[in-house]
Amino acid sequence: MALKPAEPRTRRRMGFSYDWQSGEGLSGIDDPAAVDAAFERGEEHLGAAVIGLALTCSPDVASPRIVRAMRVLDTSRREFAFTAAGIVARTHGDLTPELYAALRTEGPGGVAANAIKDTLTFVPFRKLPLWFKWRWLRATVGDTLEGWWLRAEDVVGDAWRVVRGRRS
Asked: Maximum CA pair distance of the chain?
């Protein structure tokens, strides 16, 4: 039985090179098979690679690898996977059901906070699943109430300064 040669750690594809050791060029990776192989090898720069897939591939191609990165990367590198989900929302205006589910599972308070905000900002309301519609409604109402509170605070502060005789 012949041994399969190891995959090179530096590749050149479509005139663009990327290096798994340094992470250089991985933001432009467009080869899902290379990312799958990197998962099997346990490469250090998988986060940058899934961001590259989010930038260069369709959501259907990038989504399974982004979700996998959300599950297997350690805590310090998981944020890259959620950044990739936010990039998909920004560039394509929609997410796959798997990405919606992963963001919902993580919730708005942790590393998924920015990806959820990107989703609520760049995905049309009609395309959002019910849970995200509730998040959108909560965020919109919360922002409106906060704006009213801050304006009322300014008015009260100005009135108080006038009463005390100090105009500013």
From this structure: 92
